Amino acid sequence: MQFGVLGPLQVTTDDGTPVVVPGAKVRLLLADLLTHRNQVVSADRLIDDLWGADAPANPAGALQVRVSQLRKALADAERGGRDLVESRAPGYLLRTTAVDADRFAALATGSDAESLTAALALWRGDAYADLADEEFVRAEVTRLAEQRLVACERLAAARLARGEHDLVAADLAELVAGNPLREALRALHIRALYAAGRQAEALDSYADLRTRLADELGLDPSPELVALHGKLLAQDASLAGPPAAARIRNSFPARLDELVGRGEALAELRRLVPSRRLVTLVGPGGVGKTRLATEVAGGLRAPDGVHLVELAALAPGDPAVAERVLAALDVHEAPGSRVTPVDRLTTALRGRNLIVVLDNCEHVLDPAADLVGHLLRDAPDVTVLATSREPLGLTGEVVWEVPPLPLPDDENDVDAVRRSAAARLFTARAAQQQRTFRLDEHTAPAVAQLCRRLDGLPLALELAATRVRSLGLAGVVERLDDRFTLLTAATRDRPSRQRTLTAVIGWSWDLLSDADRQVLARLAVFSGGCTADAAVRVCATDVDTLAGLVDRSLVVLDDGATPRYRLLESVAAFGLERLGDHADARARHAAYYTELAERADPALRGPQQAEWLARLDVESPNFRAALDHGGGLRLANALTWYWFLRGRLTEARRALALDGDPAEEARAVPWRLGFAILHGAPVAADHVRKVVAGCADDRSAWFVGSAVLERSEVALADELLPAEPADRWTEAVVASTRAMLAHATGDLDALERYATRSAEIFAELGDLWGRLRASDWLGGLAEMRGDHDAAAALHREGLRWAESLSLWPEVGGKLSWLAWLAVQNRDYARGRELAERALRLAVEQGTASAIVFAELSLGIAARRSGALDVAVEHLTGLVDRGRAEAQPALYLPMILVELGYAAEQRGDPDAGLALHREAFAVAQRFAVAQEMELPRDAITAVEGMASAVASPSPETAARLLGAAAAARVAVEAPAAPAERDDTDRVAERLVTTLGPDRFDALHAEGRALAAEEAVALL
């Protein structure tokens, strides 16, 4: 792990990957430990440094939380990272030898210019720049700043000894301005000025120092400086130093603002450019190629200078590129000479060592490439850094694509937004326009949205920032749909091609042929990019044309496992405006994606399920666009199974409401109904029967029946399921649903038969979703028979399958099963953890049944671990929901029993008894309706009644326990360990009250009673 303090605080892994340190207080903690690295810092010191007078109520606990967060961030980034922060009385210690300040100190001890240059290159700004106001870092910041100045002075002395007078004079000017009273630094600057032939400036510098010392400190210059002044006046030859190095002339404009978000790019390019003859920065208009190129070149050195040549003013195709370079380098052509400008330039530069920056080559690509080709062949010491919207296409060219600035990961996380370079740039420029603008929890979501909508393009962000003062941030975001009117520059010093977003994109558009423009405009009908096949079909083009548009930086190629072409949002908007009558392109788009969906539908039920799910996930934006483009009900019907697997109920219902021909309408009706039921819409049973009777296939009939079962209508679901499914897949899915029915009714033989059959067929078909569906009920069977280890193994395997397919509703379901088993095995902490994860997923997916299952486990875990208030909160909500359903929910008796126990444990056994009796009545009605034996939930209700009456009626309680024990044996439903805890607790109380013999006798009497007879004793 590498720590950086020579600039804003940063942490990276050993391979250079940035490490996110979450939260301001955690960053302060890390900074405090770094300033005292390898030393113990007391907890009291850390608390005072982090909170001062505003310490929280439990400061030690709050500090421990921050330490844990820091350890987790380091551990997540790199193996062993957690161990870097040690607990050591009386506080904590950060053990590390990988801090840039220590590397700087080691390098700065050298006397050679190379070591000192390398040392100073480690600095990224002022030490602890983002935390410099904190009291605990001030001494360290001061110490490091002094070390930096000393290193600068030593480097200046070494370079003066090599004759680099001009460079040293220029480089020290800023340091002297910032430290005007530092005499050693001033002496070096005076020597450099004099040796560079600027004697008057050297004398002025001495006079300035003497005046400042007198006015501010009441002192005279040191004897060494007085002696130096005497040598200046005497024009002492020793001050001339060694012969001056070759003059370096850099023809660059002064920097007007900070380059934001390009630190890594800058460092990479400054390493790359000196070693390669031709580097071309490519990228779309407004991505910041020119700004990056000038910043890179401004930090480079070459004996004959670094020169900027602007080509934007040339007309498209103008051959006068060489003349522009001659003028920039101040190379004159001989009057009457017949030598071409290219040959004249090549001859002039042969033997010269310099760097030429050719800016904006795309509109004069051929003459620029011709010139650069000659220079590369005939002027071997010339290096070219070019910027262009497409490569020059020369041998040896290094094409370096300038990407848009990174976007925020999470718009609701202020720290995540602040880490985004795009957001930092926008914020910096907006603050220049409106002094009070800040990036905080109020502005972060809007800034993140704006950055995404503008694709992280620096120019677009800067143009948007100029409108914040007049429109406000919200006003700018609201007007992004009309971005070409919105994004115009208020600054007058920009080139005309950069004053509006329209001009930026139009500059590239105008360089295209009519055929290329048509293809680019048609690409705008896609949403979220497209494959090469889709682009060729919809745009009526070929791959070579697409490649040409990629080369021109108008189309982005995301080169993953399946390459995809996409447009930046602004380019797409520009293209749509110029597409004109785009009905034909939209129709081809809708036809292509309808065909794709129809190919995918059967594949989603077999061994290619994972591959097709991933493909459809990527294409989801295009499917939504195609539905609007004319795909209509035919496309919606083809996507129903995909939407179901992904849990997108709202999207499915909205699409299935579209119009279609009679055949498509008939196909849509049962799926429309099934999704409505899953979404909780009230639907009459007669209407459901009518729809299923009219189903054209068994699959849609199964879908409706399965949806009905999800809302606990067991009898109706049993009636609707196809008796003899027409194909193997439908046979398997119907069997899995019948297994669910058997689980609800407690028919273990049927449960085993149907779940096993379903698992076998789905395995044969290679349908992983089907296999994990069947595993639900195989696991449920194992749990009902008391084999909790086998049940957990089945559900863990199903969880792996669900995660591999990214089936998040099923992932939540499997987590709920595992949470339930953990609770049943008394592992309440693990149960709560799993249930909380399941609940988060279920809420995200909007899956009602999964929400119930997760909350059920949370409530039971809380109740059985003694967190009664938490338990009552969860359980009461579930009871209200279950009672409100038209058909009493299958889970209602179980929740009533748990709530009954909670009421009793809170000191209200009468309320507990009433809840247990309600649970028994609901379970009994369900058993009668299904013509089944007493369900397991009714038995747990009897056990709950025994607990509630144990004190006032111990004899009745003992008989109730006996009846419940006999019922469990009869239905083969052994109590889980956690359930035994409840009955054991009651039994122990009764043995104490009644005595062992009397309890055993009453228990035996109860075993002879049916559960209904025992309850009647109450």
What is the helix fraction of residues, given as a range?
Answer: 55-70%
| Tertiary shape | flat
Radius of gyration: 38 Å
- The tally of strands reads 13
Number of helical elements = 48
* Biggest sheet overview: 5 strands, parallel
Low-confidence stretches: 244-248
| Proportion in β-strands | 5-15%
Lateral arrangement of strands in the main beta sheet: 7-8-9-6-10
- Mean pLDDT figure: 87
End-to-end CA span: 69 Å
Structural class: mainly alpha
Summarize the SSE layout with pairings.
Blueprint: E1 2-4, E2 10-12, H1 24-35, E3 41-42, H2 43-51, H3 59-77, E4 85-88, E5 91-94, H4 100-107, H5 113-121, H6 135-161, H7 165-178, H8 183-195, H9 199-217, H10 223-234, H11 263-272, E6 278-282, H12 289-298, E7 306-310, H13 321-328, H14 341-349, E8 354-359, H15 365-378, E9 382-388, E10 398-401, H16 414-419, H17 421-433, H18 444-453, H19 458-465, H20 468-478, H21 483-486, H22 501-509, H23 514-523, E11 530-531, H24 532-539, H25 543-551, E12 556-558, E13 564-566, H26 569-579, H27 583-603, H28 609-646, H29 649-656, H30 662-678, H31 685-693, H32 698-710, H33 714-720, H34 728-745, H35 748-765, H36 768-784, H37 788-804, H38 808-824, H39 828-845, H40 848-864, H41 868-884, H42 892-905, H43 909-930, H44 936-948, H45 954-971, H46 977-994, H47 996-1007, H48 1011-1016
Parallel strand pairs: 6-9, 6-10, 7-8, 8-9
Antiparallel strand pairs: 1-2, 3-5, 4-5, 11-13, 12-13
